Structure formats: structure tokens, C-alpha cells
Amino acid sequence: MMPSVSHKCGTQNFRYLVIIDSDLEDSFNAIMEARDYILIAGSEVHAAEMREMLHEMNIPNGDAAVKILDDKNLTNFERFALLREFLIKSPQYLVIIDSDLEDSFNAIMEARDYILIAGSEVHAAEMREMLHEMNIPNGDAAVKILDDKNLTNFERFALLREFIPAEVDLPTRLPTGFVFAPCPHDQGCPKLSSKNGSVCKFSTRWREIRADGKVGKRRDGTAIGSFAYVIMQKGIREPVENLACLLQVVHSDKHLTCTVCTPFIGIQRFTISKRAGPIYQSVKARKPGQLLPVTIKPVASESQFDVYEEAIKGFEKSAP
């Protein structure tokens, strides 16, 4: 009976589990056994998966977390509580999801911009104290950068970052972060700057479970909708090849019409013919929200056919 309770609770991802039985003593004892089993099993950490999580998250003091995982003197609950502290204090990602309404999207973008801006605003007094305590070379130059009123907050942050070791965080108003998804950049949202103003939204489908037991509008028992979201990651964006995010792809006869968000040239729309071969096939397999598998490079030319041929040849050479 116990494994059955655990299985249902785990796979269905319920927030609440209600167990009701008669008032007989055996029934009450069975309920208490189920209760204790859930409490105990909920604090038993799976060692292999925990090691993998610690490795992927690359949290500070990860070695200390591994020692806690290997400490045989700790009870399961003590081990669970200590490891949980590491994960709570070292969140790598912040996920914000809301509806596809314009007001919701604007609120998400405001939160995104606030995190980006506050993450580069250096606290002057704490920064001076850090420079004094660390006694770094060329500390006077760092102080001049700190006092330079002609620099923007981000310019000041970037210049000071070069003086401080990478493993040391600068004292900023908020922990420094960047956009992990869906934006391939930390620039202003081009959808907000456009005259028409549209929402960056993504479609989804889910299995509809109704409390009244009635069947939904769709025969397959699913519902469809769309949402807006942003995922922020703690840290500094690493320099990577400028890839665009695929916002929309329309499949037509022997060609694709793509709408993408780019790091520096805003929203771009273009058509990919089936004759493009590997480019067409790679883009066709992608869904909205994923990165475009090819790099967009503006090219000046009087003949679009020359550009097309050069692009195809370049892609074929770089393709594995």
C-alpha cells in the first residue's frame, strides 16, 4: 500500500494529498503509516541525482555540499535540511511567467529591466571598502573610475569588474544577472519600442483537468493558450556568437517565413526557401522560443542572389 501512495503523489505532482478512511483502529493506523512514510521519504535525498544537480548548478561552496551528502553521521532529515540551505541561498535562475496580456508582458519587461539595471549599479561606499581591504594593484585607478560621473552605471561596473577577481561579486544593488531566455540579449525589448507594440508570447498545450468532471471544448482533453515569460540567470553573460531567438515560423509551400528577435538589429522577418537545403531543414525542426540554428549577418550587396550563394556555401562549410 505504501509504494502505491508514494507513486501517486510523485507522478501526479499534487499540492495536496487527502487520505480518508473509516474510524476503525486499523484504518487509522494505516493512515498514520502513510503519513509517516511520506514525511520520511520526502527527506531522503537521492545521492546520484543530487551530485549531478550540484555539478550542473555550480553553486558556491559546492564541495561543502558534497561533504554533507557523504556524511554518514547525519540523519536523512538533517542532510536534507542542510542541502536545502545551499540551494535556497544559491539560486541560479529566476523564472517569471504571466499571461499573454499586454499589461502582464509590460510588467515582466519592467522586472527584467529592473534586475538588469540594478545588477550593474555599484554601491560606492562598499566598493571603496572592498578596494581598501583587497589592496589590489592600481587601486587608485579603480577609485577614479568609481568617482567618474561621466560613466554610465554599466560602464562603471564593467571597468571595475576588470580590477576584481572573477570569483568575487561586486557590491551591487541587486545580484548581477542576465537574460537566459527567451531573449538572446540584454538590450531593450524591440517589441516595446515598436509603434504597434505587441506581446512576446508563446503557445502551449496542457491536459485539462476539471473539478466538475466535465469534458472541455477539445475532444482530446487538452486546452491551448499562450503566455509570456522571462528567465533571469545569476552572473555575467559570457561572450557567445550572436544567435537570434525564433519568435514565429510559418510553414508554407516549399518555404518558411521566420520572425526572429536579434541582439542588435531588432525584430527581423525573412523567408527561407526549401532550396536552401541544410538551412531550411535545420530551421524547420525548430519551434518558437528556441534559438535560430544559423547566425544572421547583415550583408551589403547589390544582388541578393550573390548573397544567397555565399550564405549557402558558408553554411555548408561550417556544417558538421
Count of separate DSSP helical elements: 12
Radius of gyration: 26 Å
Which stretches are poorly predicted, pLDDT < 50 over at least 5 residues? 1-12
Global structural class:
alpha+beta
Shape, please?
flat
Helix % is 40-55%
Order of helices and strands: HHHHHEHHHHEHEEEEEHEH
> Which range does the strand content fall in?
15-25%
Overall mean pLDDT: 76
Q: Kindly report how far apart the N and C termini lie.
A: 53 Å
Tally of separate domains: 3
Number of strands: 8
Largest sheet: 4 strands, antiparallel
Subcellular location: Mitochondrion
Main location: mitochondrion
Protein name: Response regulatory domain-containing protein
Keywords: Iron, Iron-sulfur, Metal-binding, Mitochondrion, Transit peptide
Describe the structure.
The protein folds into 3 domains: 16-119 and 175-234, no CATH class; 124-162, no CATH class; 245-315, no CATH class. With 320 residues, the protein is of the alpha+beta class. Strands 1, 2, 3 and 4 form a 4-stranded antiparallel beta sheet that branches. A 4-stranded antiparallel beta sheet has the order 7-6-5-8, covered by helices on one side. A hairpin with a 5-residue loop joins β6 (255-261) and β7 (267-273). α3 runs antiparallel to α4 (62-70). It starts with a helix and ends with a helix. It has 12 helices and 8 strands. The model is unreliable at 1-12 (pLDDT under 50).
